[in-house]
Design a protein that fits this description.
heterodimer, A: alpha+beta, two-stranded antiparallel ribbon, 3 helices, 4 strands, B: alpha/beta, Rossmann fold, 8-stranded mixed sheet, 8 strands, 40% helix, 16% strand, globular
Chain lengths: 91, 267
């Protein structure tokens, strides 16, 4: 009862409905945009290969890039099988 | 040479038609020659918002199919000098016109008018494709509501794909009290996601429904807050820098008293 009253009279807006809406909107837009243009994911994959290849030899054909989504987050997941590490010196 | 501006949104019911009618009227009142085109074939509504539903003789499909010339179909608004209106056909559907015909029509109208505003139907199919075919620029209308912003995002993507650069955003039907309570997305929330330039903020306003009831656009009502917002947008379209209206929630007993006695206007 006290908790209910506290919530009712509190000025705490972190769990306000618009913040929930904002979060949901953000996630849904990430998802929508990637689904609409798989070329983005493809381009990212190419760039990733380039960058990673400077540090290690990787199995390009087995490299997987995807978006994983659960209730509250979207994450870019990459599975990059390594063949061998390069000897790498900073210039 | 005039400009063709498409007013679009993706989602239906967010206020495209109201926006088109009001901005068009305001631009005409700023001494521009303006043509409004309703492309919502089969579900026309711009005629009602403008109060010109009884003056329709020819429509958009008549023009594009060669039955008549644009001049014969364009209705001159007797109330607002310089404002002309081309209605949609009510008994056809959106496949009766194709994008190429729209492109031609817009080119022709641009010669004679300073602004050609194209009211786009909801959706992303043929109606949308027709409406954007001749457009030079776009106004995207959204509500501070999650599904409307999502649709706006999709539309912006489609506009960019159609090579219509730099669409500008109008946030319509904002309710300052709800924003203050944390129950409505605010302007920054929307801009953070859509990332396009803002050109207008229009408050939720009962006077808009009253205007539609009467067939008299809200910009003609000096007491309408929404009308004032639309008038400001028209000026910004012409390149003027107009500060945004303060939509501060009026506190105290005065607004309550006004509501009780049903008095119009707040300022």
């Amino acid at each position: 009862m006290l908790e209910f009253l506290a919530k009712f009279f509190s000025k705490d807006t972190t769990s306000s409905s618009k913040n929930i809406a904002k979060e949901r909107l953000r996630l849904v837009l990430v998802h929508d945009r990637v689904n609409i243009s798989p070329q983005v994911l493809e381009a990212m994959r190419e760039d990733l290969i380039k960058v990673i290849s400077e540090y290690m030899e990787i199995d390009e054909r087995a490299l997987e890039v995807s978006l994983n989504q659960d209730e509250r987050t979207v994450a870019l997941m990459a599975n990059i099988p390594i063949l061998r590490l390069k000897r790498w010196t900073r210039n | 040479m005039g400009e063709v501006v498409v007013v679009t949104s993706g989602k239906g019911g967010v206020g495209k038609t109201t926006t088109t009618a009001n901005i068009g009227t305001a631009l005409a009142n700023l001494k521009n020659k303006v043509a409004l085109i309703d492309t919502d074939i089969g579900l026309r509504k711009l005629d009602l918002v403008l109060g010109l539903e009884n003056r329709i003789v020819y429509n958009l499909v008549d023009v594009t199919s060669g039955v008549c010339k644009p001049k014969q179909a364009l209705i001159r608004d007797k109330r607002t000098e310089g404002l002309y209106f081309l209605p949609a056909a009510q008994t056809r559907d959106k496949t009766s016109v194709d994008p190429e015909q729209m492109r031609q029509l817009c080119l022709e109208l641009k010669e004679e008018f300073d602004y050609v505003l194209v009211d786009c139907p909801a959706g992303i199919e043929q109606g949308f494709k027709n409406a954007v075919a001749g457009a030079d620029r776009a106004l995207v209308v959204t509500n501070p509501e999650i599904s409307s912003v999502r649709d706006a995002d999709r539309i912006i993507g489609l506009l960019e794909a159609a090579s219509i650069p730099d669409p500008q955003l109008i946030v319509n039907r904002i309710r300052p009290r709800m924003v203050k309570r944390g129950d409505m997305l605010d302007i920054d929330d929307i801009l953070d996601n859509l990332r396009i330039e803002l050109i207008g903020i229009v408050p939720e306003d009962e006077s808009v429904l009253v205007s539609t009831n009467r067939g008299e656009p809200a910009v003609l009502n000096p007491n309408s807050q929404a009308g004032q917002a639309f008038r400001n947008i028209a000026r910004r379209i012409r390149g003027e820098k107009v500060p945004y209206m303060s939509l501060e929630v009026e506190q105290g007993w005065r607004p309550w008293l006004r509501r009780v006695f049903n008095l119009q206007g707040t300022r």
